[in-house]
Amino acid sequence: MAQQARAIQTRRSILVAAADVFDERGYSSATISEILARAGVTKGALYFHFASKEDLALGVMDIQLHSDPLPPQLTKLQELVDQGMILAHRLRHEPLVRASVGLAMDQAVEGLDRGTPFRAWIDRLELLLRAAKSQGELLPHVDPGETAEMLAGSFSGIQVMSQVLSNREDLGRRISVLLHYVLPSISTPAVLATLDMAEDRGERLLRTLETVPSQVGTPN
Amino acid sequence: MAQQARAIQTRRSILVAAADVFDERGYSSATISEILARAGVTKGALYFHFASKEDLALGVMDIQLHSDPLPPQLTKLQELVDQGMILAHRLRHEPLVRASVGLAMDQAVEGLDRGTPFRAWIDRLELLLRAAKSQGELLPHVDPGETAEMLAGSFSGIQVMSQVLSNREDLGRRISVLLHYVLPSISTPAVLATLDMAEDRGERLLRTLETVPSQVGTPN
């Protein structure tokens, strides 16, 4: 068991190091030797867990697909908002999340299916929107599938722009602006009036989660 | 004059070749020798116009900043919609435009100011939104600056997602969806009812422009 825990820990440090390097250099300029140096592990240890740079990228992208569930809220649309606000906050503070999203956006990532992380993110939002629809939270014309795609696409571009213009300092505000413009076209007025879409929503939510250790922070 | 025209033509072919290579490989994997081969020009000709790969990238990004003006419409918000729909159409059909946007989104582009194309795009949209505001087309709470940033950011992400999921086949539809969700939070109802945000808007508009040769298609 101690040995298994150590292996999980080593795998995690390699992924964190790979994420740092992918995040700083982009995929194609990243080298295994820089990842090795950053992780402080032997070549043997790295190749025990990951066969190649591609395999490392897959491991990093995978992180995003398995993030922990968020606490249930009074409305499904608040949970939808929370997904965006939490991701905005984690992008600012967690290199693993940053690299995971960065790889999906990186044109130089050839041979890897960059569609998988997009589809996983779209599916998660679509599920929430379908639940919102069945609870009567959506305006009648709203199509959960196309709305989920629009939100995922918009989010992904706004985070690149925020990275370029402010090193993601203003990401919370920018995602809050997006939600303020889009939600009135999605939500019934009664639900809209209850939504917390403030730019510090992600930070506040994460602080609550940190007091409930069983729900967050466990490595995959 | 004939010599100058040839020089402009050569510069243009080099930029088109560079755009193709950047678009296919991403910035960091692109090589000068592949661009040379693609352009069918001598090394001397290329270095006469561009000092380095960075300089080529600047030239390609610059294209986006100097695209031709679109025809005036009855409302400034229709002109705003047209900017997005035309860009969606050009992204599908013009490698130069594709590479120009791609470079702004490419994390591996180090040492170049990727903020410039974003700011130029934001400025253009903000100008249209300010004009729309002064014509009474906007809802009272709308802030032209943050709205322009939100639209530019959303657009840029949706085009990456469309590229990943459908090789941009569905880009017109996706931008039309974005506009349908966002414009009701920007436009007065009376103007909203007049807006043409259909997914083939860009194509139709470009067809009109092609019959007015003085307005379009002149290289910079």
From TrEMBL, chains A, B:
InterPro entries (UniProt xref): ArpA-like (IPR047923), DNA-bd_HTH_TetR-type_CS (IPR023772), Homeodomain-like_sf (IPR009057), HTH-type_TetR-like_transc_reg (IPR050109), HTH_TetR (IPR001647), Tet_transcr_reg_TetR-rel_C_sf (IPR036271)
Gene3D superfamilies (alphabetical): Tetracycline Repressor, domain 2 (1.10.357.10)
Superkingdom of source: Bacteria
DNA-binding region: 31-50
Keywords, ordered alphabetically: DNA-binding, Transcription, Transcription regulation
Recorded GO MF terms: DNA-binding transcription factor activity; transcription cis-regulatory region binding
Domain named HTH tetR-type: residues: 8-68
Any matching Pfam family: TetR_N
Keyword Transmembrane helix recorded: no
Protein name (record): TetR family transcriptional regulator
